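Blinded run. Sample ID left blank on purpose so nobody reads anything into the name before looking at the predicted structure. Input follows.
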Amino acid sequence: MDHVDLSLTRDVIHIDWHSDLSDKSPHMTLNCGTWLNYVHRPRSLEWYYPSRECLTTEGGGGYCHWDKNPFTAKRPEKICGWELVQKFHGLPTEERTRNVCGVGIAISHHWGGDNHYRDFRDLWKSYRSKEANEFRLDTSIDICDWLPLDKKGRL
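Blinded prediction complete.
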């Protein structure tokens, strides 16, 4: 969240099983399911989810709201603070990501277990490759303390 706030962006593309956006209810506190409610200067949010199972609040579904669903509201700013919220199944198209100026990666051991380490390591190695550096993206990657790093802090 800090990386989003420090950037000049007001538009976020969020790729995750969970929406991480809630309605503003008395129950809400800052946590992994509400962090998008705490972004400063929110304008538009696009949530890309991998499975239709995400479109529920039941049994580990991806919706994170208590009472009112920001993704089905006509005026989401009244519910969650964002002017526009949209949801899409799958990954964003090349056209949707053409103006991306930064990438943030968050890894949750709680939700993903040890598989996240392997996937992140492979992604990081591919990013570090010459071809990936041609994108010239401003990246912010927080490495959680549970990741097994060597003495120089490398994966």
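Unblinding after everyone has recorded impressions. Residues 2-89 form one domain.
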